[in-house]
């Protein structure tokens, strides 16, 4: 046997052992704690069948993946998994970036009663215009797969003229298949690196899959579901160190106020071992009241090592002024996110002789039903190593300043607002060799439906930092980036958020409340710099001139020239021409630029108020491969939906 063949055999054995070892692992539960093993209650014979299919799935992977994919040890870094029903139906998948396809494996998809199972992809979780692979038992054998799509109203299933669900194997419990990222089929969804909505269901009654059209099957909520996930994701990161130390920063039996929005602050002193510098290599949330904790941030108190910060545990609005220095971001979490692990070359510094030992936890409670008597002890669990890694990491906020200077008119499908990190800021704040971005978390409140950060070097637009065309505020993952951009001094970063305000009667303002809006990209990068915030809003002078124009030219008499911005925006009667005027003002007029250090002071060397806006192409690049003879039947593409202000029809 050749050396390469021997290596493949070894990797094959390792991969199959890995799959078997994962059979009893449980996906993160609602409290986002460590995985809990849960034995599946099946006969030993069914387990054997599952293992046989797993081995076959592995063999298919060995055949399909290029040899260089196995040059390094094939570990669980390449295997992603989730329980679709949170208990039994386990979806595992691997991404073949070389062949641009995903290989799927489903455990316990069927039992003795089920006649069919489907796995599909939906634009934003709707059953209408969905792309579905049906797997069916015929004559006692699970041997038929049919590529289908649903009608716009979700009532009917149509057989696709191009069959792109490629089956490896099915038995009475398990199935394995593959799909291309982009099949060049208008009746399939193109897989992307943003949030995808994965549909599943199974049933006992026969389906008429041989027919061109049949009614969409109606099954109970216990036998169907939708999961939001990032299918095309980077490999998982393993922590090479074994000697880990753990710090928990959390609330202690806090009674959640009975109001819609509360920012709760808790200040505590760090453990004594942090008199020596450590690197944070992982952090994970501890969520006690899911659904009420919207997001959390941990901040370090950036001051001299010997300054005592008063301990505090109450509403952030009453926090003592001495704690205002506690503003350097250390860790963060938002709904939908879970554990975040640093790449092996870097870690976030914590501790040291000159490091102030106080830390602040800020928890955003969202309690729209004004529920009383709820007690919470949520927080963050941070893992550290004493052996320092090559680079100190940092966290930076990109996007829009939290201010009511920005507004979103009502009735908009996808109104865009952009926050700028202008070239003049990176020029004065970044090192000569630049920074490498390896992690990103996009964040809005309730009306955000799409977020991306674009990267510019002079007149050239480079590859995007992060992009989620199907963003959901319910699923705000901190994502390790597969492509890690290097941002140089003089580069510009533009973060754009799109908002859906259809059904609203008045404008939505920027701000801290859950009913206000935000537009943020929290980026993790190395090496660390003093730049903490690189965000913008429209300049004060521009906004004053805008309200003068609305009052005198547009005859909006409710506008008060010295009045509150929020009241002025809310007094405007919004027509499409006025929406267009607002958008034009935001993308053309000068900025109020926040090029800030962690102590909230601006960098010196530039006039940041009324700073020039970064000129960018308004049209967002759409990434698709060239498909010869695309859509010969002139079908409406599944991913085509309602159109936004700029004519992009993805909603």
From TrEMBL:
It is a single-pass membrane protein. It comes from the Eukaryota. Its cofactor is Cu(2+). The chain crosses the membrane at residues 53-71. One of its GO terms (cellular component) is extracellular space. One of its GO terms (molecular function) is copper ion binding. Residues 87-203 form the DOMON domain. GO terms for biological process: dopamine catabolic process; norepinephrine biosynthetic process; octopamine biosynthetic process. The keyword Hydrolase does not apply. Belongs to the copper type II ascorbate-dependent monooxygenase family. This is DOMON domain-containing protein. It comes from Glossina pallidipes (Tsetse fly).
């Amino acid at each position: 046997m050749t050396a390469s063949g021997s290596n493949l055999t070894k990797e094959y054995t390792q991969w199959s052992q890995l799959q078997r070892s994962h059979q009893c692992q449980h996906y993160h539960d609602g409290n986002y704690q460590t995985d809990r093993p849960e034995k599946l209650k099946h006969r030993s014979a069914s387990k054997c069948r599952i293992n046989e299919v797993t081995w076959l799935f592995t063999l298919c992977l060995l055949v399909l993946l290029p040899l260089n994919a196995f040059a390094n040890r094939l570990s669980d870094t390449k295997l992603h998994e989730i329980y679709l029903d949170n208990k039994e139906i386990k979806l595992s998948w691997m991404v073949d970036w070389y062949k641009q396809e995903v290989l799927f494996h489903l455990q316990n998809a069927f039992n003795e009663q089920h006649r069919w199972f489907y796995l599909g992809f939906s634009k934003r979780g709707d059953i209408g215009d969905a792309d579905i692979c049906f797997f069916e038992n015929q004559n006692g054998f699970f041997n038929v797969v049919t590529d289908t799509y649903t009608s716009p109203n979700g009532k009917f299933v149509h057989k696709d003229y191009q069959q792109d669900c490629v089956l490896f194997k099915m038995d009475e419990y398990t199935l394995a298949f593959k799909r291309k990222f982009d099949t060049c089929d208008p009746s399939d969804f193109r897989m992307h690196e943003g949030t995808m909505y994965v549909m599943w269901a199974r049933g006992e009654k026969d389906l008429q899959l041989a027919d061109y059209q049949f009614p969409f099957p109606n099954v109970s909520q216990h036998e169907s579901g939708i999961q939001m996930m990032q299918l095309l994701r980077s490999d998982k990161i393993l922590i090479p160190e074994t000697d880990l130390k753990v710090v928990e920063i959390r609330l202690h039996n806090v009674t959640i106020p009975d109001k819609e929005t509360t920012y709760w602050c808790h200040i505590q002193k760090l453990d004594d071992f942090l008199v020596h510098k450590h690197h944070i290599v992982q952090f994970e949330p501890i969520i006690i009241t899911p659904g009420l904790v919207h997001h959390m941030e941990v901040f370090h108190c950036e001051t001299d090592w010997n300054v005592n910060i008063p301990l505090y545990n109450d509403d952030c609005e009453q926090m003592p002024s001495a704690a205002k220095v506690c503003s350097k971001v250390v860790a963060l979490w938002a709904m939908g996110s879970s554990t975040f692990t640093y790449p092996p070359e870097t870690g976030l510094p914590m501790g040291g002789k000159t490091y102030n030992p106080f830390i602040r936890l800020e928890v955003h409670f969202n309690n729209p039903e004004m529920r009383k008597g709820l007690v919470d002890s949520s927080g963050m669990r941070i893992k550290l190593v004493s052996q320092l890694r090559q680079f100190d990491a940092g966290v930076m906020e990109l996007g829009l300043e939290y201010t009511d200077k920005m507004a979103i008119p009502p009735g908009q499908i996808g109104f865009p607002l952009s926050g700028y990190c202008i070239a003049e800021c990176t020029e004065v704040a970044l090192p000569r060799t630049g920074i490498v971005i390896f992690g990103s978390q996009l964040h809005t409140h309730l009306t955000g439906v799409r977020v991306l950060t674009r990267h510019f070097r002079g007149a050239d637009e480079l590859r995007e930092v992060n992009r989620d065309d199907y963003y959901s505020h319910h699923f705000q993952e901190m994502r390790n980036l597969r492509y890690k951009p290097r941002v140089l001094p003089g580069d510009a970063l533009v973060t754009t958020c799109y908002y859906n305000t259809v059904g609203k009667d008045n404008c939505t303002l920027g701000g801290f409340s859950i009913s206000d809006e935000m537009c943020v990209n929290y980026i993790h990068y190395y090496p660390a710099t003093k730049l903490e915030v690189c965000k913008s809003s429209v300049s004060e002078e521009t906004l004053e001139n805008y309200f003068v124009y609305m009052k005198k030219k547009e005859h909006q008499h409710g506008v008060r020239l010295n009045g509150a911005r929020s009241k002025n925006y809310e007094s405007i009667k919004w027509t499409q021409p006025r929406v267009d005027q607002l958008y034009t003002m935001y993308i053309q007029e000068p900025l109020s630029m926040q090029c800030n250090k962690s102590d909230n002071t601006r960098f010196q060397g530039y006039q940041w108020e009324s700073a020039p806006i970064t000129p960018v192409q308004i049209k967002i690049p759409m990434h698709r491969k060239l498909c010869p003879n695309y859509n010969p039947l002139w079908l409406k593409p599944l991913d085509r939906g309602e159109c936004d202000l700029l004519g992009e029809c993805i909603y």
